[in-house]
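Subject: design request, 144 residues
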């Protein structure tokens, strides 16, 4: 793994969106992933935005969050041309290390059931799938 991991700032927003698009990651450009919402999350103290850089490009990124009780891996993406080189593992490891440092002892990820790559990835990293859990949410708008 020759990529460098660093914290992202709002100046990286356009590159981040470009990466999510290249990676085929579903995201919410008019909702919680709009520039203003990401800026607010970055300033809020409960989010960890990390990027992996290689060849002068943002080739991977992850958003770690916590609610004081659990940590969450969100929006993990690696550019297709840079996959299977350990970048995803390194990004998750870096988020885990920071969350552990904040006293968070359980880290979880929500993965859509069609996303075989992501499920294989998390299983490989030792995450346990809970197929008996159903995700409920209430949204203030469909774009959220
Ligand atoms: C999931 C994703 C982030 C993995 O990134 P990556 O950089 O290729 O992963 P790594 O190279 O660090 O792989 C870590 C381990 O998982 C395994 N792995 C990764 N992708 C895999 C796949 N598609 N099938 C099986 N195993 C896989 C690797 O072999 C590796 O195991 P090893 O270290 O024991 O050899 C990447 O495929 C991606 O961006 N997918 C699209 C976006 C997405 O679905 N994100 C997750 C949303 S929940």
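Subject: RE: design request

Done. Sequence follows.
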């Amino acid at each position: 793994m020759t990529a460098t991991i660093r914290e992202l700032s709002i100046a990286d927003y356009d590159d981040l969106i470009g990466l999510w698009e290249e990676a085929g990651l579903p995201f919410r450009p008019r909702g919680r992933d709009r520039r203003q919402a990401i800026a607010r999350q970055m300033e809020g103290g409960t989010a960890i935005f990390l990027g992996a850089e290689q060849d002068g490009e943002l080739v991977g990124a992850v958003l770690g969050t916590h609610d004081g009780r659990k940590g969450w891996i969100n929006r993990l993406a690696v550019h297709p041309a840079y996959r299977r080189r350990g970048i995803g593992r390194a990004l998750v490891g870096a988020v885990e290390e920071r969350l552990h440092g904040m006293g968070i002892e359980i880290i979880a990820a929500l993965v859509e059931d069609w996303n075989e790559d992501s499920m294989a990835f998390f299983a490989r990293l030792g995450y346990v799938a809970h197929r008996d859990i159903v995700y409920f949410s209430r949204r203030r708008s469909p774009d959220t």
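Residues 23-25, 76-78, 83-89, 109, 111, 115, 117-118, 120-121, 124 surround coenzyme A (CB under 6 Å).
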